[in-house]
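User: I've been going back and forth on whether these two constructs are worth ordering. Before I decide, could you fold them both?

Assistant: Sure. I'll take them in the order you sent them. The first construct and its structure tokens:
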Amino acid sequence: MRLHTPMKTLCLAVALLVAPLLGGVPVAHAQSDDDLFGSGVDREETVAEERAALESGDMDDRIGVTSEEIVLPEDERSRRRIIKALPRKRFLKIGRWEAAPHVGFVTNDPFINRYLLGAGISHHLTEVFAIELIGSFSPDFGNGDWKAITRQLVEENQVSPDISKILFYANVNFQFSPIYGKVAVLGRTIVNFDVFGTFGTGVVFTSDDLEALQAEDDPVAVATQNQYHPTTNFGGGFRILLTPNIAFRIEGRSMVYIETVKSLNLEMKNNFLLLGSVAFFFPGMQ
């Protein structure tokens, strides 16, 4: 509500007379109606708001902590009691190496179980982009890898499913990490995380299960039992940062390649790999 000039003058005179009695200082410069009667734009924060800001990490009240302060005009700074600060990023990847031993398995093969054991190493060119070399080995347990449906088909129904086992693979990938953030767990612990995507190319070595194919004596099948295939892969995952130098990773990757079946037919394979790993970053952060 705007005040007419006589009322405005009367209010200003009362404020000047009452201020010394309350221990205040007379106003030394003219103010607008909004400054005199409170527009709410520049009000000071309450204790509850200040406590919430501290708990959320938006401000850091520790002495000696380096933070980037928000620069305010001089008149604005004199009227505010709190200066918000932007805390430094707790975890940096730029220029560092990341070694990540992993375990995993192939999730979408309907006939056999394939377990993976391997490792990857990445060099982070920036906070967002990295180059990665990753490889896995998968042990062959013969018909111990068969699922129940495979055993039924082969032993009871005399049906020969096309079974090809991944024995090992190696890929060179391009990795990008567009998202970095943190989340409060149980309202107390702050957990930092990093979301990343990856894609690249490489080679995979496979072996046909001739026992399941019932072709152990077939020279045509034996000729193409073991094969190398060029492959592409893409996927993504996230890191949960345990310390500035150690992280836990969960990721999924789709690996696509074309193989020859019994020296005659071409078949496209698409295996989805689920991997879990512990990543170690070096050199360490100070």
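The second construct, handled the same way:
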Amino acid sequence: MVLFQANNDTAIISNEKESTYLEILSKAKSISDRLFKRLKNERIITSNTSPYDFIISLLSIWFSGNIPVIINPNFTTAQRIELIKELDINNIFNEITKDDISDSGEITNSLGNSFDFDLKFNSTKDNALILFTSGSTSKPKAVELTFANLINNFHCINSLVPIKNNEKFGLTLPFYHIGGFQIIFRALFSGNTIVIPETFKSEDIFNSTQSHSINYISLVSKTLFDFIESDYQFHAGLKAIFLGGGFPNNSIVKKAIEKGINIYKVYGSTETTSMIAGFFCNNFLDKIDSAGLPLFDVKIKIDKDGHILLKSDSLMKGYINYPNSYQDKEWFNTFDYGHIDSDGYLYIDSRREDMIVSGGENINLLEINNIIDAHPSIISTFSFGKEDAKWGQILCSAVILKNGICLTEEELKDYLKKQTISYKIPKRIFFLEKFPQTELGKIKREELLQIIDSYEQ
């Protein structure tokens, strides 16, 4: 089966260049022949910071019949070493060199017509890639996805908004997360154009959307908040904004709708290969609090504990080196809590107990607790999310200091800047003398949050 077809249609637009399908596929084929000719079905790490270079590296690895392992560039050296060891990886595809991505000599007459560059694969069951996601522990889990997962998820979005020819997708999310990766895949699979903004800053996303007349963009709630606050006016050809990545502020969603922006709320994860539920908010304001209806072949039910269970060909092949969360005839347990109304709309009551989503980033609260607890002056930490109009949720932590220790919020934040990346640093830190606990030592969450709320009044 042909996955991507080489032709002279525009595949990628970035600030530096425009490239056709023939150009990017021929470049990828050339790199594949030079670097991966002797490898087959091997896991190869790619960790590019440039979206354009990443796409070329991805195609190169696929051409060779190998499996890309997509690493977040923000992973620490220690995390990389641990993941390489765990996945038994022997090959790392570093940043593509200037020579590799040069235009000269990539397309030669000796290779014949454009069909020589068509990217094909043998079976939809073939492994397509490995992505990492935060799970119920502080250690990222490796998620294995097949070509069937990627293609099926394309049909999910296509069932929500039919994708036509000669359309443009904005790469408005990081490609090392499933949301950003699927922007790339659905654009290439449908033969359309990927537009790469200068940065993921809200202003650059807006400018790129306007200047290139982009038809589809995917956003987290923070970016939509920035658009509304800045009173941006979008061009009429913007068919859809897909809004996901956590709990969106519905007042902001309503303001966007009032401005005539087409908002589609969507729900999904790395394990589901991106969106598997969604709806067009503009036509169903009475369902604004929901995550929408199941898409394409997706089936959803709620188990006796209130967990959301899913069944779909979009579901991952599995976690690598972790037990799968499949139950009862291949149903996948998201461990999110929710309910389904009489019209079949899914509502997310709460995410996994140890996770929050802030600005589209999954944050594992257990990991944050462990990082802060490593400070020599701290006895105990309790991290949590608070609703926020801009970020969806913000990360906060309550800490207990050792007797006689004086530590300010800014001093603790300065310490954390050396320990982790910026989005994992709490925006608010509260110093308490003790945590309310049950007789078994479990923190009384609601009582603790009431105490913290009283601090802010």
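Notes on the second construct follow. The chain is about 25% helix and 30% strand. The first strand starts at residue 2 and ends at 4.
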